[in-house]
Amino acid sequence: MTDNQLCYERATCSHCDGEGCLYCDKTGSVLVRAPKKPCRHCDGVGCFYCGFTGWAGLKGKYD
pTM for the complete prediction? Predict the structure, then answer.
């Protein structure tokens, strides 16, 4: 699978628990690479590496 064919799925933002915040653009969820996995650096709590959302493979703004 090439980078252009990556599949993404919705995951609830761990920072706001789905209520909406600046990290998820006030939607309560973010797109992450399937299958969704918690960030290995913070175990899903939220850190710099996962954009404070708690998920690994976060889809970038320009992807």
Answer: 0.82
